[in-house]
Give the backbone structure.
Amino acid sequence: MADSRIIRHKEYDLHCSARAVDGGLYAPVLVAVKATWPTRPRTIEVPRGHHQDEASAIEAARTLGIEWVSNYG
C-alpha cells in the first residue's frame, strides 16, 4: 500500500488506502477507528471495483467510510 489518507468523520478516523490487484487495477481498503474509547479498529469490506488508479480507490473507500459511520457508527 503506497498511498493512504486518514479522514476524520464525526468521532471516527477513516484510514483509506489502496492495494494493487490484477491487471494494474487497485482495490480500496478501509479501516474505521473510533477516536474515543473503545478504539478497536474495524476493517470494513469494500467492493473491489475496477479502479484505474490509487486516488479513485481511496475516494471509494472514503465514500463508503462516511456511509458506514452514518449507518452504523
